[in-house]
Design brief:
alpha+beta; 4 strands; two-stranded antiparallel sheet; 36% helix; 91 residues; 15% strand
């Protein structure tokens, strides 16, 4: 299934993640978190392609800036546990 970025359900999922993460990049760094508010994007922790049942689950998303999102792409398995823990700690 191809992603429809204009789908109201997808837009709502993205906005809920942005609000929860306070519109800041959550990528861990040596000094804490990236924290950038520029060019933020919603990232699926378990990929869109491999976890269709979690596509709109807010707990399967995290806010990343474009730069950090590009670094993660292709290495999603490495970051899955790290990002899941960050989201769990927000509850």
């Amino acid at each position: 299934m191809k992603r429809n970025y204009q789908d109201p359900v997808y837009k709502r999922w993205r906005q809920e993640i942005y609000r929860r993460d306070r519109f800041k990049c959550q990528m861990p760094t040596a000094n804490g978190k990236c924290g950038s508010t520029r060019q933020i994007q919603a990232h699926h922790i378990k990929t869109w392609a491999n976890a269709s049942y979690l596509r709109y689950d807010v707990d399967n998303g995290i806010t990343l800036c474009r730069h950090c999102h590009e670094r993660v792409t292709g290495h999603e398995n490495h970051y899955e546990q790290i990002f899941s823990e960050i989201v769990r700690n927000k509850k």
